[in-house]
Amino acid sequence: MESSVVMNGGDGPKSYFKNSKLQEQILDGAKVLLRNGIEESLEIQEHSKVISIADLGCSTGPNTFSCVNTIIEAVKHKYKTSEDHALNTNDDEMLPEFHVFFNDQIDNDFNTLFNALPLGREYTAAGVPGSFYGRLFPKSSMNLMHCSTSLHWLKRVPQEVTRRDSPSWNKGRITYVKSSIPVVNAFRDQFSNDLKDFLKARSVELAPGGLLAILMMARPDDTLPPDAIYMQMFECLGDALVDAVKEGVIGEDLADSFNIPIFIPSKSEVKEVISSNNSLSIEMFQEIHYPKIPKTPGHSQMLSIHGRAILEGIVSEHFGPKLTDEIFERYPKKLKSFIETPYCARIDKQVNLFLLLKRRG
Ligand SMILES: C[S@@+](CC[C@H](N)C(=O)[O-])C[C@H]1O[C@@H](n2cnc3c(N)ncnc32)[C@H](O)[C@@H]1O
User: Fold this and answer.
1) How far apart are CA 236 and CA 175, in angstroms?
2) How many H helices and E strands in the chain?
3) How far is the CA of 150 from the centre of ligand 1 (A)?
4) What does the UniProt keyword field contain (predicted)?
């Protein structure tokens, strides 16, 4: 079974809606690449009157609306500057209509998403619940698909790290950051297999000449998986859990059976998987450097609220609401001591990857 990893719903103070500024910054950093990529690489049949767009792993907003807007503006610009269009005087008739599909897992708070749909938008909207690791759309039906800061979420925690009788049992930890090499490898293999499945499904759904834009968190090639700063921050929650177990607040078995299904790949780990897909050509593959986060006094508090908006769903499913509050109350202190280590200065070395893939004809 796949894990349900949806972000905190609603639009309250702990919601993803109110705590997705970091992802917004990553998206903003990639917008110019997305625009240029569409301009240069999108191929649309002359008769296309409807452009179908999907945002995969859209969550509750508002970032998804801003990236859909960027895509639509880029496609309109491409139409307006095309030779066919220059010959035709009636601008509006030449422009296509846009149909946008918002995808996320079935537990995503689609009500908050739809309540926030921008007024005066230039597209029709539909929700598509389900996992992007499988098929979501009919064959060859999509012109543009987009997926940002979502593919680090694995389909599930690798089974061997949860089994007590396995040499890869991840006892006492919730990520692979402080774990043995077999544990790290199990997470890495899961990531590669999941990304393969994701690309396989998109290869079928994209129309020939259609584009898949992916924005993902990554680490530099000269680092090991445990070096990923984001993973280190998630493991701070594991440190909070270790304390809670030592104090007898949380049972050891309950803590030992919890893992976060996330892996942050390097550029070459991603490239290896993508190159093995024969239906998609690589149009762009670029590193974007993470916006520097100011290390202000309230910084760890901000990061812990952000972490809660992302992780509370899976933590609460495993531990229940009361223990979840207990764990997250301990989180800012652990994050603060991590942020103050010299190691954390390496945050500047973290990267995001922007990929633009095209369905071969
Ligand atoms: C960090 S949020 C990113 C949301 C949005 N793209 C943004 O940039 O703000 C990651 C999203 O991916 C979704 N997600 C994770 N695994 C998924 C899957 N297998 N299928 C569909 N959505 C998934 C989560 O539910 C979550 O909404």
Assistant:
1) 10
2) 10, 7
3) 4
4) Magnesium, Metal-binding, Methyltransferase, Transferase
Q: Which atom of ligand 1 is nearest to the CA of 131?
A: 20
Residue 257: name the closest of 245, 247, 275 by CA. 245
CB of 287 closer than 8 Å to CB of 357: no
Residue nearest to atom 9 of ligand 1 (CA): 63
Q: Which residue has the tokens 């973290």?
A: 350
| CB of 170 closer than 6 angstroms to any ligand 1 atom | no
pLDDT-derived band at 301 (thresholds 50, 70, 90) equals confident
Task: Tell me if 64 CB under 6 Å of ligand 1.
Answer: yes
Distance (angstroms) between ligand 1 centre and the Cα of 92 equals 34
**Contact (CB, 8 A) for 135 and 203:** no
d(CA 311, CA 265): 19
* CA atoms 121, 125, 129, 132: torsion sign: negative
> In order of start, what are the domains of the chain with their CATH numbers?
21-221+261-291+347-359 (3.40.50.150)
pLDDT class of 194 with cuts at 50, 70, 90: very high
Q: Is the pLDDT of residue 270 over 60?
A: yes
230 within ligand 1 shell (Cβ under 6 A): no
CA 67 → CA 7, 26, 31, distances in Å?
A: 18, 11, 8
Ligand 1 and 105: CB distance under 6 A: yes
Ligand 1 centroid vs 54 CA: distance in angstroms? 13
Cβ atoms of 349 and 208 within 8 Å: the answer is no
The DSSP code for 153 is B
Amino acid residing at 303: L
